[in-house]
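Figure 2 data, in text form.
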Amino acid sequence: MTKVFIDGSAGTTGLRIHERLAERKDLSLLILSDEQRKDPEARREMLHTADIAFLCLPDAAAIEAVELAKGSKVRIIDTSTAHRTNPAWAYGFAELADLRAKIAASDRVANPGCHASGVLALIEPLIRNGLLSADAALSVTSLTGYSGGGKKMIAEYEDENRSPLFGAPRQYALSQSHKHLPEIQVIGGLKTAPAFLPIVADFYSGMEVTVPIFAKDLRGTIDDVRALYADTFKGPMIHYNADMGEGGLLCASAFSGRDDMEVGVFGNAERILLVSRFDNLGKGASGAAIQNMNIMLGVDETTGLCV
């Protein structure tokens, strides 16, 4: 039986991974007490005992955990931003390029960021297949539920005495230095990071990412993009939906509670909208981490997931 340790199981991502894995009969969860979970020696022992470890930690603590794991045979899935652009780590987005094989063979996998997942699903296939230039100057709008901000933001939004400002969508990362931009640029193959407009709104979970493209910047047509997505994303975790939407509208929480993602193409011959929808806690975090573990273990990648 595979022994699994979640380092940082008290956070939003760690808790959700724990909930999902607790129901698995093929895994044995290694648990630290509340008193031990920040003890480096206790963590070291768990990392050296486990077959798979999820790091659900801030960047500095994730780097520390990797050091603690040295000399062990543990295979690590890091959900922080610490290793996402490190070429020694496999980037954990199986649907891009040849990453599924790299994930399966790797002992070090960097789980993607939630916003980055939505952007990369839309742009990486276009750049890799020559429909979009790596020189493209892109903009991205990403609408997310408040659970993406972790326990602190969840508490702020669910406080009965919260500010009235929380009732309307709020744009953030105004300095254009969001932590997901480096992986979007590196993994996407872009020469310039996109202008990024993330927005948090008053719903618990769900994410909707939009990348607008002008026809003059596309080496092909809107139908070429649709055909490429249909050929690239056939499931089980990402699928192209030609009929995506709800009567001319798109709801950002439509995939709340799910672990898969859908992509769609809207607009006309001149102005094209590329859209992805998923749960920021699912394919954007814990769902992707479990999918990566399944691939590493050689089992059906949807095992234990909601798709």
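Caption note: The chain is about 30% helix and 20% strand.
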